[in-house]
Predict the 3D structure of the following.
Amino acid sequence: MTETLDISITRNQNSRLAQTDFDNLPFGHTFSDHMFIADYADGEWKNFQIVPYGDIMMSPAISALHYGQSFFEGLKAYKHVDGKVSVFRPYKNAERFNKSAERLCMPTLPEDIFTHSIAALVDVDSDWIPTKAGHTLYIRPFMFATDPYLGVTPSKTYKYMVITGPVGPYFTKPVKVKIETEFSRATEGGFGYAKAAGNYGGAMLPLKMAIQQGYDQLIWTDSRDHAYVEELGAANVMFMINGKLITPSTRDTILKGVTRDTVLTLARDWGYEIEERRVSVAEVLEAAKNGTLDDAFGAGTAATIAPIGQIEHEGHLYTLSEPSQREFSNKVLKTLNDIRYGVVEDTYGWNYMV
Ligand code: PLP
Ligand code: COI
């Protein structure tokens, strides 16, 4: 892969691989030996490097720290049963990376630089990809502004970086969620559709409060009336009601998930009826009450397919069907894993081989 992008590689002489406990990998704590770094200046991307993972030195005045010119992506690499390595649908993330960049007044990155930088980094650290079921190498590309200048204006210089780390599942049990009726994650005309760092910072207080009340996650609702379902934490949300797969249509308050698109593609090909539209809180709760809510889950890269066990809304707690008995979400998770770990043929061309 490196031949398509001129990358200087400095190998880590102090690998942490041997000291890493691959049987205990909570999400986001462990990082692989190397990272990718590139600079943007004078209108172009340059200095493509893979270097040992480590701290970086920055001016304290960078606008990323003060005004939030910072965003990221999230995708995963898989080690197949035959030892080959693939990254799942990186061009979809490359496309969304540039949507985020445009919304935050930051430079776009050619899609091939995005995918080749990731492939080269994953290749260098391929021994870090876990092989245990449900375990993967999480890939975190990100971009941030680096001008040492406090004016509220777009920076002229930026860094694009990629770090990776082996991870286990983000959620280890069905989630108990609260439907949020006070705070909002995103607003109309805002930037909820971008993976802007600020979207996640703003979600921390409402999530902390929900966790203190005994929930695992939030279902975000529209900021105007809190009457329509939007997302589940940092994942898209889907419901199977009366045999129909229903999910909020994407709009400026909703991140257009790669997993969402993947699940909808599979469901369509399996002959399920699909509705992408505004989904009201009322209809979800009514279905939970009258027994027509056959399935409910979050869909995301970190979350994978995360079954919802219980839903709370304004003091009422609804317990949904036993997650292990649900037909659709179990089938979709198994199929996704079979494709990603190379157990079945990837007829969709989703695996980008490294
Ligand atoms: N929604 C939000 C807010 C997210 O952070 C994510 C995770 O990336 C998703 C949805 C799911 O997107 P994807 O499936 O591309 O990971
Ligand atoms: C991802 O699934 O990649 C996400 O962005 C979720 C992350 C914020 C933990």
User: Anything to note?
Assistant: Residues 74, 200, 234, 300-302 surround 2-OXO-4-methylpentanoic acid (ligand 2) (CB under 6 Å). The longest strand covers residues 136-145. The longest helix spans residues 197-212. The domain at 2-169 is CATH 3.30.470.10 (D-amino Acid Aminotransferase; Chain A, domain 1).
